[in-house]
Amino acid sequence: MALADTRTGSGDPPKVSLLYNPAVRRGVFQVLTLVVIVWVIWYAWHNAAQNLARANMTAGFGFLNSRAGFDIAQSLIAYTSDSTYMRALQVGLINTLVVAAAGIVTATIVGLLIGTGRLSHNWLIARLCTVYVEIFRNIPPLLVIFFWYLGVLALLPSIRSIFQHLEEDPDAVFFISNRGIYMPAPVFGEGFGLVVAAFALGVVAAIAFTLWANARQRATGKRPPVARINLALILLPPLAVFLASGRPLSFDYPVPGSFNMRGGMVVGPEFLALYLALSLYTASFIAEIVRAGIRGVPGGQTEASYALGLRPRQATRLVVLPQALRIIIPPLTSQYLNLIKNSSLAVAVGYADLVAVGGTILNQSGRSVEIIAIWMLIYVSISLVTSLFMNWFNAKMALVER
Amino acid sequence: MAETTIYVRDRFLAPEAPPVSDSSVIGWMRRNLFASWSDGALTILAAAALAYFLPAAINWLFVSAVWTGADRTACLTVEQGGQLPAGWSGACWAYVGDRFVQFMFGSYPRDELWRPLTVVVLFVALLVPLLIPKVPRKGLNALLLLVALPIVSYVLLLGGWFGLRHVETSLWGGLMVTLIISFVGIAVSLPVGILLALGRRSEMPIVKTACIVFIELIRGVPLITVLFMASVLLPLFLTPGNNIDKFLRALIGVSIFASAYMAEVIRGGLQAIPKGQYEAADALGLNYFHKMTFIILPQALKLVIPGIVNTFIGMFKDTSLVTIISMYDLLGIVKASFGDSGWITPVTPLTGLIFAGFVFWIFCFSMSRYSAFVERRLDKSQTR
Amino acid sequence: MAKKIVTALVGAAVLGLGATAANADTLSDVKAKGFVQCGVNGSNLAGFGAQDSAGNWAGLDVDLCKAVAAAVFGDATKVKFTPLSAKDRFPALQSGEIDLLARNTTWSISRDSQLGFDFRAVNYYDGQGFMVKKELGVKSALELSGASVCVQSGTTTELNLADYFRSNNMDFKPVVFEAQDEADAAYNAGRCDAYTTDASGLYSIRLKMANPDDHMVLPEIISKEPLGPAVRQNDSRWLDIVSWAHYATVAAEEFGITQANVEEMKGSANPDIKRFLGEEADSTIGADLGLPKDWAVQIIKAVGNYGEIFERNVGQGSPLKIDRGLNGLWTKGGLQYAPPVR
């Protein structure tokens, strides 16, 4: 490539046959690629159109406004069988986001614990954490989901035995059965908005206080007790408002119905199996990333911070962790993305995520092209947004050379 | 030294044994288990948990387990209609034993089992020398494994030639399918991944954009959607009436998916090669093809062997997803057997899943060990 | 270079692994390749399409496939089965992967018109029902308000279920599964109170349960589910053959022809029977269908008449023990009726 340039120094470029001219070759190659791509797309498009015409079907997204006709078990927004396909997809998307968010939080916490546990001086803890990582890293996530769903959750007590248990102990409010975990649902009374507002105010105040404390530390070298004051700022105002406004919160307790418990809140085994499997599986990878990150910070950094008089906790928080995070964040991002993508395994246990709902619509309406296009679009967008956020976070954490 | 001493010790005392708290088991425990109060508490907690769960697990897996039996009554308690005492729970290995051939080969005709077995022997015979660094002729070996073996196994497994009976792919199943899919995935994704990675680093804008779009699109979506696309949309995109075997469609889906990931691994290797190598190759007057095949790729690929193995591990685990497009790989066939009335018991699913998990684990674990071994070797050769 | 090799390999694999071209004339294709490719139920639905441990297929739908093979080739073994899930049965027929779909598929107007298929014969009149555990003490589907119901996604069953509960002002919790065996396992494990699918399927699934006697099928039938073979649209000759393969078995039952007496019935004095069995000298029925003269004889020799097929697969001769009911002959209060063989 750079070949031609080096020779141009001595006047005219040497005569090169058109066949060997890099610029021409490059152009020809690109045109060829373009032709192949266009041809493939045209070929697929043409055949799809023909096949659809043969089956008396038309392409387009208009069908999203027709009646779905099927019910969805887990829905966080209002949905009945009279809702549209569009609404059904929204339900699926929300379910995907919920399980992914819950999974990411849990996986990060568990991964952090296990990863630091593997580096622990405690022999037993380090071994146990190693065993955990080596088991979960080497088993397909789908198998872990089935393990929870068929192997563990299905063996929990049946709903009938819960009914019997309730007869003996009528005050029980929390039940674990093979239909899920039942618990009281909070009912927010009038005035609960004030509590939320107080909480929001508290958070804002805490942030402001932290900024002030930082400035003060820079100016005077003394740091006010930020953690304790922040905790108070965040917790006390909402608590005070809550008590002052006459405790506007009650609970809806689950009671035995004809076949299932009525009322209360239920976390279904489908969600649980998926959530547990995704968290535990991804946690094993995050643990390895955390371990590599912490080990990637040279020991001299810790020693130097001790020499400066930092306490071990301060050394970890102010010196080791910020440096470790730089190593951790990029691979952590791809683990988060993997978790989001793996949440599509929901379809295996019938959790109504985007892929499961989309699959049902695909079957009911026969609109395969449109549904798969919607899937791809949504997942690529979720991935992009997550990557953008993590890149921003990464840039914030990156080494700022002064 | 000038000073003379009155007493010179000419016999040294025997060295003291290190303090008990430092050398004995107690010392070890103090250092490694009870270094501080919180450490001790953690240790005791973990030990208690182990003491509670480990014996129970061993009991469930081995001691109480049922090893022989013809049908589900062997693994049922008296109240469920079997002979075992009430309250019994344990693994039902008899079921795994009964279904073992099916778990390995699916419904492959039982009198033709020598064919997959031959393929297994060939595969092992070609793979082992490739994995041992000292054995020479790696190039020929890789060529045999990645080109010759697929052709031979294709003829052997599918049949229809040389007097071999034709065995439809719908009869294939079990571990055999898992291995075939992941092997084909790696064999296809390596060359395609190299092309994509080179394309992504190329200076030609159209080629580059096309590669980036393909790689990022595929990496941005879950494998399930790619598999659905291959199994549902592919027939739609072909000329009416042309139709591809379902098994092949799954292979295409997995290969597309693996190629995109492989491309990124290889790109990492390409980026790690110092610029000087590219420039030196240019200075020697090598054209692009020669530069890549003789200078850059050999170095880059060697660098990313651990990454390739990791991708392969991921793919091996991901093949289990073909269950969702109703194909019967190892996990799929194990799961399908839960519904078999001959073996329905409360412990069947758990036993089957533990068995399948163990098989997957053995494969993935040994691969990850191998990758670590290569990584160490590479480290050594580079810090020379 | 590498690209070329890959393309060549993929191309070779495509050809080898069975690229078939489906023209509008399925009969010629079938004759050319020498066997009928038949799509059947992939989840071992006993009585309709199920494989024993040796890999042999049996069932009502399987017998229909065999009947078609017997009619075309005079040899009921010249048939290959493709096990299909609810999801991939239609693409499989649309794309020409299979020649005929006999997978307990409901004939509905949208499938007939919208999906590009043709239905005509109905080899089993079914309806959607519910199965519950006896210990629940439920005697009618109308008592199921509040229950969790296991159902397979993407089926007409799923839609009927929603409509039924809605129209009766009852609520329910759907527990939806992609594959039938997953739904079976979940119901068996107590994840749901009731299981819904076609009544025939319920009987078959009941057999798979650890203790079939613990479960009962409720009396309500909430939908019409005529199950029959489907072929691609615009291929009336093939549709004729597939439909008449079924009608021949019904006609045989009407005539009293059985697998055992078919040879001696050839000598019957009844002109209808003689025409049916191809014994009439100038009979062109077989040729008009594109089949050998003795096509009906071959079918009955291979699988027997409809009554025999029914009893063997789902009736008293099988573990399912389903009554003839709607599937009795029209002369006996059922719906099975063969057009005249004339």
From TrEMBL, chain A:
NCBIfam families: HEQRo_perm_3TM (TIGR01726). PANTHER family: AMINO-ACID ABC TRANSPORTER PERMEASE PROTEIN YHDX-RELATED (PTHR30614:SF37), MEMBRANE COMPONENT OF AMINO ACID ABC TRANSPORTER (PTHR30614). It comes from the Bacteria. This is Amino acid ABC transporter permease. The chain crosses the membrane at residues 27-45, 93-114, 135-156, 192-214, 226-246, 266-287, 345-365, 371-393. PROSITE patterns: ABC_TM1 (PS50928). Belongs to the binding-protein-dependent transport system permease family. HisMQ subfamily. The keyword Coiled coil does not apply. It holds the Pfam family BPD_transp_1. Residues 93-390 form the ABC transmembrane type-1 domain. It is found in: Cell inner membrane; Cell membrane. The keyword Transport applies. It is a multi-pass membrane protein. Its main location: membrane. InterPro entries: AA_ABC_transptr_permease_3TM, ArtM/GltK/GlnP/TcyL/YhdX-like, MetI-like, MetI-like_sf. CDD domains: TM_PBP2.
Automatic annotation (TrEMBL), chain B:
It is a multi-pass membrane protein. Gene3D superfamilies: MetI-like (1.10.3720.10). The chain crosses the membrane at residues 40-62, 113-132, 144-164, 170-198, 210-235, 247-266, 350-370. Its main location: membrane. Keywords: Cell membrane, Membrane, Transmembrane, Transmembrane helix, Transport. It comes from the Bacteria. It is found in: Cell inner membrane; Cell membrane. Residues 175-366 form the ABC transmembrane type-1 domain. Belongs to the binding-protein-dependent transport system permease family. HisMQ subfamily. This is Amino acid ABC transporter permease. It comes from Shinella pollutisoli.
UniProtKB/TrEMBL annotation, chain C:
The keyword Nuclease does not apply. Keywords: Signal, Transport. SUPFAM superfamilies: Periplasmic binding protein-like II (SSF53850). Residues 35-265 form the Solute-binding protein family 3/N-terminal domain. Residues 1-24 form the signal peptide. Belongs to the bacterial solute-binding protein 3 family. This is Amino acid ABC transporter substrate-binding protein.
